[in-house]
UniProtKB/TrEMBL annotation:
<dbReference type="InterPro" id="IPR002305">
    <property type="entry name" value="aa-tRNA-synth_Ic"/>
</dbReference>
<dbReference type="GO" id="GO:0004830">
    <property type="term" value="F:tryptophan-tRNA ligase activity"/>
</dbReference>
<comment type="subunit">
    <text>Homodimer.</text>
</comment>
<feature type="binding site">
    <location>
        <begin position="9"/>
        <end position="11"/>
    </location>
    <ligand>
        <name>ATP</name>
    </ligand>
</feature>
<comment type="similarity">
    <text>Belongs to the class-I aminoacyl-tRNA synthetase family.</text>
</comment>
<keyword id="KW-0030">Aminoacyl-tRNA synthetase</keyword>
<keyword id="KW-0648">Protein biosynthesis</keyword>
<feature type="short sequence motif" description="'KMSKS' region">
    <location>
        <begin position="192"/>
        <end position="196"/>
    </location>
</feature>
<protein>
    <recommendedName>
        <fullName>Tryptophan--tRNA ligase</fullName>
        <ecNumber>6.1.1.2</ecNumber>
    </recommendedName>
</protein>
<dbReference type="Pfam" id="PF00579">
    <property type="entry name" value="tRNA-synt_1b"/>
</dbReference>
<keyword id="KW-0067">ATP-binding</keyword>
<feature type="binding site">
    <location>
        <position position="183"/>
    </location>
    <ligand>
        <name>ATP</name>
    </ligand>
</feature>
<feature type="binding site">
    <location>
        <position position="132"/>
    </location>
    <ligand>
        <name>L-tryptophan</name>
    </ligand>
</feature>
<feature type="binding site">
    <location>
        <begin position="192"/>
        <end position="196"/>
    </location>
    <ligand>
        <name>ATP</name>
    </ligand>
</feature>
<feature type="binding site">
    <location>
        <begin position="144"/>
        <end position="146"/>
    </location>
    <ligand>
        <name>ATP</name>
    </ligand>
</feature>
<dbReference type="InterPro" id="IPR024109">
    <property type="entry name" value="Trp-tRNA-ligase_bac-type"/>
</dbReference>
<dbReference type="InterPro" id="IPR014729">
    <property type="entry name" value="Rossmann-like_a/b/a_fold"/>
</dbReference>
Length: 329
């Protein structure tokens, strides 16, 4: 069976963007692939963070993934720092990637902009992400559009390593959803919906109440064209396009087709809000139930850790041997 692997940072509140870009794919892919999902706490400390919030956020993210329908028996859900090989392989990746390659990463440019104290790890982050993926001989990496550049780099680095030292790694491919691979901010539809953004009105959080969801969608920015049409690549129509994509993705349909069923923006917004509420309500309920049983969550994470460790240690020793480390006796 092919292997699927992906990851999410346990900081901030997960958004509808995370759900449509990533989590939804994960849920279906676990049926067909050998699936590993990482809660990447090591990535979360590349920007200023609170230790207390990180620890809580990690457990909350686990509860959320299980609430969404990731099955702890079928899939391996792991906290990144529980498997030491991630950091160990990351060093080899830093010794394979180049400064120039890392300098071209858009996410680094965005996240470092205007900050006086940029952590060194924010720069080397894609090397750790490459390690996350390569450690498990991953075939497919289901992500939102914003992660494609990192996966391209992973492919480059893995290929270079294999050529230089011998075939150690499977070369992974990114998989993005056909609709809603980049969910936009509702109030600023030119920017992506992001759990780290400060405008809470433009973000739908997976744990928002029905009321909050309805209010935010009702206020979503549209345009003055006054027609419900799906037009790609027109920045002026980004708001309506975003609503159409959200609605289409939730109903497994095409945005163009969905557009033909509406005349008024108000009706489109109402239908979108209905669909979001219908999807997120049950998730929210399961989340609160799961979070109340901390012992169960920790037990599932312990199982994930054990399974992950078995695979990761095999790849790491092969990579160590290939690169020329002397094995300890
Ligand atoms: P993170 O935590 O920022 O996001 C988790 C997943 O959600 C997707 N996503 C979106 N998709 C569509 N529209 C949006 N507005 C939106 N916002 C977020 C992201 O593309 C991602 O798939 N570096 C990664 C985590 C990571 C990882 C990995 C992923 C670490 N190691 C190995 C895959 C494989 C990140 O910060 O995701």
């Amino acid at each position: 069976r092919e292997r699927v692997l992906s990851g999410v940072q346990p900081t901030g509140q997960a958004t509808l963007g995370n759900y449509l870009g990533a989590f939804r794919q994960w849920r279906t892919q676990q049926e067909h692939y050998d699936a590993i999902f990482l809660i990447v706490d090591q990535h979360a400390i590349t920007v200023e963070h609170s230790p207390v919030a990180l620890r809580e956020g990690t457990l909350q993210m686990a509860a959320l993934l299980f609430a969404i329908g990731i099955d702890p028996q079928r899939s391996t859900v792991v906290v990144q720092s529980h498997v030491a090989q991630h950091a160990q392989l990351a060093w080899l990746m830093e010794c394979t990637a180049t400064y120039g390659e890392l300098s071209r990463m858009i996410q680094f440019k965005e996240k470092s902009k205007g900050s006086a104290m940029v952590r060194a790890s924010l720069f080397t982050y894609p090397a750790l992400m490459a390690a996350d993926i390569l450690l498990y001989q991953t075939d497919l990496v289901p992500v939102g559009e914003d992660q494609i550049q990192h996966i391209e780099l992973t492919r480059t680095v893995a290929t270079r390593f294999n050529h230089a030292y011998g075939e150690v790694f499977v070369i992974p491919r990114a998989v993005i959803p056909s609709v809603a691979a980049r969910v936009m901010d509702l109030s600023h539809p030119e920017a992506k919906m992001s759990k780290s953004s400060s405008d809470r009105q433009g973000n739908i959080y997976l744990l928002d109440s029905d009321d909050q969801i309805r209010r935010k969608i009702a206020k979503a920015k549209t345009d003055l064209f006054n027609e419900v049409r799906y037009v790609e690549d027109d920045p002026e129509r980004a708001g309506v396009r975003n609503l159409l994509e959200i609605l289409a993705a939730l109903n497994d349909r095409e945005p163009k087709e969905v557009a033909s069923e509406f005349q008024r923006y108000g009706d489109l917004k109402e239908a979108t809000a209905d669909a979001v509420v219908a999807h997120l309500g049950p998730i929210r309920e399961r989340y609160h139930t799961l979070l109340a049983d901390r012992t169960q969550l920790e037990a599932w994470l312990a199982i994930g850790r054990e399974r992950a460790n078995a695979t990761a240690s095999v790849t790491l020793s092969r990579a160590y041997d290939a690169i020329g480390y002397l094995a300890p006796k």
